[in-house]
Amino acid sequence: MSESEVNSVISEANLKEFDWDHFKYERILSNNSSRKVVFILGSCFEMPAIVILEKISFTQEQFTTENDKENFIRNSKLEKIFKNDIYENNYCIVDANLNKMKTTIIFPATEKHINKYTEQECFTFQETPELYEKITLPHITSEKFTVDWVYNVLEHKKEKDRIIIEDLDSEIGFMLLPDLKWDGETKETLYVTAIIMNRNIKSIRELRQKHLPLLENVKTKSLQAIKEKYGLDSTQVRAYFHYQPSYYHLHVHFNYLNYDSPGIYCDKAHLLDTVINNIKLMSNYYEKATLNFVVRKNDKLYSLFSDAKN
Amino acid sequence: MSESEVNSVISEANLKEFDWDHFKYERILSNNSSRKVVFILGSCFEMPAIVILEKISFTQEQFTTENDKENFIRNSKLEKIFKNDIYENNYCIVDANLNKMKTTIIFPATEKHINKYTEQECFTFQETPELYEKITLPHITSEKFTVDWVYNVLEHKKEKDRIIIEDLDSEIGFMLLPDLKWDGETKETLYVTAIIMNRNIKSIRELRQKHLPLLENVKTKSLQAIKEKYGLDSTQVRAYFHYQPSYYHLHVHFNYLNYDSPGIYCDKAHLLDTVINNIKLMSNYYEKATLNFVVRKNDKLYSLFSDAKN
Fold first, then answer.
1. Per-residue pLDDT averaged across B84-96, rounded?
2. Enclosing H/E stretch for B307
3. What is B122-309's CATH number?
4. Which of A209, B120, B137, B173 would you call most buried, defined as having the most Cβ atoms within 10 angstroms of its Cβ?
5. Among partner residues B33, B95, B121, which is closest to A186 by beta-carbon distance?
6. Do A162 and B82 touch (CB under 8 A)?
7. What dotted CATH number matches A121-309?
8. Contact state of A260 with B265 under an 8 Å Cβ cutoff
């Protein structure tokens, strides 16, 4: 189904909520077997739906709680596979309520979502300032990537009860929320995002010296809130931007340093500290810098940058 | 309990099998929240036991099977957390028998097992140019980290038959070799390292404008060799330095872009392209920059930088 076809029936589909009992499995888009996440494409009421199932990591609380009904060990049994000397392998069968999975539903899903979650080969390109002006910027503008869901958050229309802290200043303000990928509780996988109030900064590419107060404000207040609320010291937190970002409204990712969160690779993630330092060293750093970024083969930017190279 | 004490009671313990109902939880040794594996220390009949619980990855069969009792979708239900626009988050509660965990038991466990599975927490620090001079450089010098094995390679005393390409120029030369972590064959996990001939550059911290010809030479010739020998285009290769590096003799890591190789995180890996670009933008970038780095708690630099912070 094309994107326009999808859009034309979205109003109708909005009337219907996603219903798991009506979900029809179609195919696996990708399956990360080390992280135990699967991205499934299917349909619901004839509209495409993506279901992301992710097993949840363990918490200390599960093993230490004195509530018998919530104690992992008291509500599980072992099924022996084999034993060799001091080593033995088992399956562990756990009460279903103590072994939930995180499930994200995208409904109705568009071609873009399907592409995003389909496993594909990656390629790296160098974006010079000239290529940004000539290719990336027109691409962002013409594709009209919607950030309505960001505005819903910033206007308190959605997710208001999820806000960790907010600073409503239009220049240096931001809202800090748990990331969609986080369950909102487990310290070990902490992942929160600061969304900037200013609607005119698409990405780090547009950051200049005048934005230093904004960056410092986001850094200081977010780290302080993470410390107060989740007990993580600033030395235990990774704060970074993505380039290219998944949506072109400036935001900062924060997660627990010990957690190998997705998207923290050096060819995608730019540390907030480094960005601040670069601008301090050279006020027009992001106007002059050549920035590497990684795209997948069926991303529009792949063909645009491939053509420019040849 | 010491290793000898453990050994002295092993014969007695061998009479008793591990019993989950008698397992007493003591503490979590480590918890890998991205891979969803937890290493637990406890005891059983007063003997130390390690329990390794690992969630299992998804299989296509779970979603396609026509056996109703084994079908994931038909044996699970969703519990809504919140909904925003086309995105909604749920918990998924699955029949316990379709959601088993892999469980390895080590019983009785020794001190060695306990050490092996104990996690070291990571911390991030900002190394200003002043802190580099005051702490890092004296640390590198005083600890006399040996790089003899590097010199053995550069002098053709060791690993000569493993060299992929070499350029013996003392200023811009280097040798390219398969990394020890690579099997030397599988394209999907390609990992090769360029070791610089020049013995006077400890790390990126010492790179200056005069080193640009060296960096460009390593980049061009290595990428060309990787293309000719392993069929990977330069757009499919990730080239980067580590900071702090594991040894203080300048070297560049190259691996296949699709491969989540260890040590490619943004708080450790610095892209070769970015390093070249930074020096072109500002010839003394690495003399002036504040560089973030990550250390584990029992690393000497952890205590040195902690003390400096307080």
1. 94
2. helix B300-309
3. 3.30.428.10
4. B173
5. B33
6. yes
7. 3.30.428.10
8. yes
